[in-house]
Amino acid sequence: MTGMGGDPQIEETIFRLLAARQPGKTICPSEVARALVAEEAGWRALMPEVRRVAQGLADAGRLRVTRGGVDVDVLKEGGAVRLGRNFS
Length: 88
Fold this sequence. Notes:
It comes from Aquincola tertiaricarbonis. This is DUF3253 domain-containing protein. InterPro entries: DUF3253, WH-like_DNA-bd_sf, WH_DNA-bd_sf. Pfam families: DUF3253. It contains 3 helices and 3 strands, in the order H-H-H-E-E-E. The chain is an alpha+beta fold and 88 residues long. It has one domain (7-85): Arc Repressor Mutant, subunit A. A 3-stranded antiparallel beta sheet has the order 2-1-3, covered by helices on one side. Helix 1 packs across helix 2, helix 1 packs across helix 3 and helix 2 crosses helix 3. The longest helix has 13 residues, at 7-19. The chain is globular and about 35 Å long.
């Protein structure tokens, strides 16, 4: 997939990457952006959108966004986060 994806593409990519991982494993939001943007330098521009979609999925109870194993709001400052399946 090339170019910048919209919400459905970002959501699909998040869950596709998670499905490829062992249960309980997480992904970095940058992995999602890199999977969607062909140019190596272009993925950073997609990061705000990836974070926004991830937080929407977390708010809907479909995804966990964590920092140090603790659920967080990815849109707030505070460092690197991980995206994981929500098993609850």
